Amino acid sequence: MTSSLLRPDSYARNTLERYTGSTVEEFGPYILLCNFPRYVQDFAAKTGNPIKSGYWDVVHDAGTGVSIINYGVGSPSSGIIMHCLSFLDKLECVIMLGMCGGIADNLNIGDIIIPTASIRDEGTSQHYLPKDVPAQPGFWINRICEEVITDRTSKKPRNGIMLTTDYRMWEFDQEFIDYILKHRILAIDMEIATLFSVGYALNVPTGAIMLVSDLPLRKGGIKSKDSAKEIFCKFTDNHLQMGIEIMATIRHHIENNDKANIGKVGDHLG
């Protein structure tokens, strides 16, 4: 069988092609990840490029070198996408445009968080790193994210620790709520710790720009179908544009050999 001839690298590239309906040559070196079709649709409209689909949806913009992928939800999918992307020959960095539930009392819907770490309360990352290794982004990516967002909005994004869980219905489990409150986290999600951990393990510079989409510990704060629709209408275009501008800034530094100012590309911890 031909499958017996696949190596780890060819298997990962083969999987990426099957899941996206694209060839590996179409992927740009700057990858935006998301969980929702709206981001991919808006990126296609902004750039005039078609949406390609397999199990995931993707748009490639050769002009900017950016590809955006809607890879679904959760830790296992996060592990798959990062593992596959790590075998792209020209990959420079990956940034997640994610949504999260705000836990800190001073957060509001629409706030932007640049995570400095995420607690690994999920099952995928342990296959890549020992359990006592923290899940952290590329700090040079964080620096650029903060600079671009501050310039764009005249407001610094929040920075701090998140918690990533694979427990979807935790909002109604008081024992779990007590557990996360002990960690003094800013916000909670289902992907970030996995993305950071696999990125670190496989030498993929990785970052995240997180949009607070609900406030699940406040009365009436759990995201509903109606509130989710409002979030998409009100905040996602700006969220996507932040990602596009950050990738343009990163590309400018790399193409002008200005790596001294952003940290060595490939050095995940900056």
Explained architecture:
The chain is built from seven helices and nine strands. It has 270 residues and is α/β, with parallel strands linked by helices. It has one domain (2-261): Rossmann fold (3-Layer(aba) Sandwich). A hairpin with a 4-residue loop joins β3 (57-61) and β4. α1 (8-20) crosses α3, α3 packs parallel to α6 and α4 (139-153) packs across α7 (225-255). The longest helix has 31 residues, at 225-255. It starts with 7 loop residues before the first helix and ends in a 15-residue tail after the last helix.
Provide the fold topology.
Layout lengths: L7 H13 L9 E5 L2 H11 L4 E2 L3 E5 L4 E5 L4 H11 L7 E10 L9 E10 L17 H15 L4 E8 L8 H9 L4 E3 L2 H10 L4 E9 L10 H31 L15
Instruction: State the fourth-level CATH superfamily.
Output: Nucleoside phosphorylase domain
How many domains, in number, for the residues? 1
CATH classification, class level: Alpha Beta
Biggest sheet, spatial arrangement of strands: 5-8-7-6-9
> What structural class do helix, strand and pairing data support?
alpha/beta
Output the number of helix runs: 7
Second CATH tier, the architecture: 3-Layer(aba) Sandwich
* SS elements, strand count: 9
- The low-confidence parts are 263-270
Principal-axes shape call: globular
CATH topology: Rossmann fold
Arithmetic mean of pLDDT: 93
Q: Could you give the distance between the termini?
A: 43 Å
Helix content: 25-40%
What's this entry about, in short?
The chain has 270 residues and is α/β, with parallel strands linked by helices. Helix content is 37%, strand content 21%. The chain has a 5-stranded mixed barrel with strand order 5-8-7-6-9.
